[in-house]
Amino acid sequence: MSNVYRPTWAEINLDHLWHNFEEAQNQNLTKKVIPVIKANAYGHGAIEVMKHLYDQGVRYCAVSLLEEALELRAHFDDIDILMLGPVMENDILVCSLNHIEFTIYDYHVYESVLKFKHSMICHLKVDTGMSRYGFKDVEQISHVVSDLQKQKHVELKGIFTHFATADQDETFFQKQLEQMRLILSNLKKIPPVVHVSNSSSTFKYESKIEFTTHVRLGISLYGLSLDEKKPNIKPVMTLKSKIVQIKELNEGECVGYGATYCATEKQRVAILPIGYADGWIRKNRTGHVQIHNKKFKIVGTICMDACFIQVDETVNVNDTAILFGDLISIDDVAKRLNTINYEVVTQISYRVPRIMIKGDKKND
Ligand SMILES: Cc1ncc(COP(=O)(O)O)c(C=O)c1O
User: Which residue segments constitute the domains of the chain, with CATH numbers given?
Assistant: First the structure.
């Protein structure tokens, strides 16, 4: 029996997910793709996404938080899980006991690692220009790498950096790449796993990078990109909700909190059971939704659990509205909200059930 009751859901197309993974893999046949499934797989459902990738043979993934890593470990005992975010000294033991690969990004984390004797698998993160996590000083990096390689309890499996502008500024990107080259050339022994690319760099530059073994694929695994020239990928998430009531408004009658929208003539307004607590934030009030291949205007103020759509005679109770994922894309919504596609999908909240689909199966 299903435990999904509400008529609002996000469809996650697993065939598209795998298509996107393969596109990245086929561009870079000698490199391995590490799917980035932090933040609940960018809102798509981390366990289900990993399960599908696992069934296709994938055995590596990356997350940000230890909580995310442990949730995955509880479901998959034979995959490698890399934690990209910060680790607290008290949690190093938890990583070690659960075989979570963690990131050493600063001297104090390195010193913490030396206090333990439990076996642990680590990656060193270097900062090549983004000024976020990572060691910066080339000599210090050499010293820390060679010291970690001498420690019996530490497996220094990888070294990596992260790009700030792969999707926009090639000059800055190349500067970071050069800095990574310099850092690696200064090492006596390079760790076996070297990874630098995010989605944008995976598609645009990775095939010309000679020193890496893996890429970290985030947003484009979900069929999205910030690049002007989009790779051949397919969006994975479609957000849907069913009309649960239709109001026939007379001229002068208003809808919603603040009575911000009032009918200027006889009008039909449909109520969709999705609101800002679902991540369908109030700023969406200027947009449209799709019903029967046609766009209809959102009117009034978006409530916590509902919003209002101005509809015509063709629309009925129980009809499905597509909030994004077809005529209205995730990028259209990002533009409407003056943000990026990453934020649109990650903000769809836990209250919206994720329904996994394969092929063209539609759940309405
Ligand atoms: C360290 C690191 N690697 C890889 C990624 C994936 O980036 P993208 O989603 O642009 O592919 C992220 C995402 O923020 C990240 O922080």
Answer: 14-222 (3.20.20.10), 237-357 (2.40.37.10)
